[in-house]
Write a structure and sequence with these properties.
Layout lengths: L10 E5 L8 E2 L3 E9 L12 E6 L2 E7 L7 E9 L3 E12 L2 E11 L3 H6 L2
Parallel strand pairs: 2-8
Antiparallel strand pairs: 1-3, 3-6, 4-5, 4-7, 7-8
Length: about 120
């Protein structure tokens, strides 16, 4: 009987925490911070390859693991937001076929000054 290793995807923790609801901001950028960590356990040691962030359909941040032994990546990025709702998605990859992601919605308020100037 051959042994089969079960893999767990990388874990991603974020600030702002998606479990606390959608952040609402007035500015053009939102600070996204966190940690991606490869799962540990029996079997081969897992390593992270890279991490990237999309806002809506645009890649806005990329960080490669500094070496082949990295099982943890910390990140911080000021991501751009368009007015209204924006979907922010953080991806952590171990390889081309094995990754995880976390998403949340961030809302950028429309500037009141611009709305008053249109009258």
């Amino acid at each position: 009987m051959a042994e089969v290793w079960q893999r767990d995807p990388p874990r991603i923790t974020l600030t702002p925490d998606p479990a606390k609801g959608a952040p609402v901001v007035d500015g053009e950028r939102l600070r996204v911070e966190g940690v991606a960590q490869a799962a540990t356990g029996p079997g081969p040691r897992h390593r992270l390859r890279d991490l990237f962030i999309f806002v809506n359909d645009q890649k806005v941040y990329f960080k490669a693991a500094p070496d082949a032994e990295t099982g943890r990546l910390e990140f911080a990025a000021d991501v751009p937001l368009k007015p209204g709702n924006n979907v922010v998605t953080v991806f952590a990859r171990e390889d081309e076929e094995f990754q995880s992601h976390r998403s949340f919605v961030a809302h950028r308020r429309v500037a009141e000054v611009a709305a008053q100037g249109a009258k």
